[in-house]
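> forwarded from #structure-qc
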């Protein structure tokens, strides 16, 4: 059992016998195929225990990526104990505050945290992993196409009960994958959204970075600016563009940015459909309509607008 493995690892780290009480508090995070708990015991600060399965290849990358990011001076939780044989790692407890939990606060008061988050993307842009380090396969046309198929299967077919074959055969989607897959090869987080941006002492820390790979920086930017959980207004999105321009001395090219946003939103919609089908987690349902509205916006006037129109119209 994952919790047994975490408990055994925690006792090994703490150097305590089975008579010492240890409490494991579940932490729900996304659909990464991992078990994440907060570990509490008398006389010691809480820490986080993570157990991963082999169902997803990127889970094995968490520890080596964490060491690389720490060396590159990005802000991530400290790794305090590793047990690869048990597939368990113990990390610093950064608390429960992420960008999403602060959504109700005035946007202007949150801008320093967005700056902190975007500075991490900028720093990631310049980080250079050692040549011997094996990253996840880069974002190429095949991976972008996989994300689209994920959307077709779990959102269009499973969630809406519609035929997705007409979308699979539409060249607008394959052409998008080809365009995005032949370009920049900078490091990207891949899931740079509000739940993965924790707040500690008024700074943003990255978590769930095991999917780190090479790709387009605009994908990470779009993941935050068009985050369905936060649902930024047009004025807020403009403020974030201005913030990024101040950090990076340039704005992303709008057509490319919108294409990355469309790709990311399709991936998110596929994930929501998958979670609803396989886990029955109703928390994700209302975000489907938000993501659909945003996808409609970023694809307006493009070749994707017409084939997506009946799909997006079918979403309540």
């Amino acid at each position: 059992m994952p919790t047994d493995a975490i408990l055994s690892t925690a006792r090994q780290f703490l150097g305590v016998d089975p008579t010492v009480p240890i409490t494991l508090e579940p932490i729900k995070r996304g659909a990464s195929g991992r078990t994440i708990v907060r570990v509490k015991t008398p006389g010691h600060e809480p820490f986080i225990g993570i157990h991963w399965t082999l169902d997803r290849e990127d889970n094995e990358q968490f520890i080596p990526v964490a060491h690389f990011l720490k060396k590159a001076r990005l802000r991530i939780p400290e790794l305090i104990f590793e047990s690869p044989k048990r597939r368990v790692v113990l990390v610093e407890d950064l608390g429960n505050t992420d960008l999403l939990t602060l959504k109700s606060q005035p946007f202007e008061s949150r801008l320093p945290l967005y700056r902190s988050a975007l500075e991490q993307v900028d720093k990631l842009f310049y980080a250079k992993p050692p040549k011997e380090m094996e990253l996840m396969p880069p974002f190429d046309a095949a991976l972008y196409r996989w994300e689209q198929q994920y959307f077709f299967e779990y959102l269009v077919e499973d969630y809406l009960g519609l035929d997705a074959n007409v979308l699979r055969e539409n060249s607008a989607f394959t052409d998008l994958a080809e365009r995005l897959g032949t370009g920049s090869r900078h490091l990207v987080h891949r899931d740079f959204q509000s739940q993965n941006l924790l707040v500690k002492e008024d700074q943003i820390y990255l978590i769930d970075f095991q999917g780190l790979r090479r790709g387009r920086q605009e994908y990470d930017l779009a993941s935050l600016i068009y985050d369905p959980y936060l649902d930024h207004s047009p004025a807020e999105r403009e403020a974030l563009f201005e913030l990024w321009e101040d950090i990076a001395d340039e704005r992303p090219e709008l057509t490319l940015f919108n294409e990355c946003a469309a790709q990311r939103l399709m991936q998110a919609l596929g994930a929501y459909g998958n979670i609803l089908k396989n886990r029955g987690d109703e928390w994700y349902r209302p975000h489907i309509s938000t993501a659909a509205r945003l996808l409609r916006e970023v694809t307006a006037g493009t070749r994707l607008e017409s084939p997506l129109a009946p799909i997006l119209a079918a979403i309540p």
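QC bot note: The chain has two domains: 2-92, 100-313. The two ends are 39 Å apart (CA to CA).
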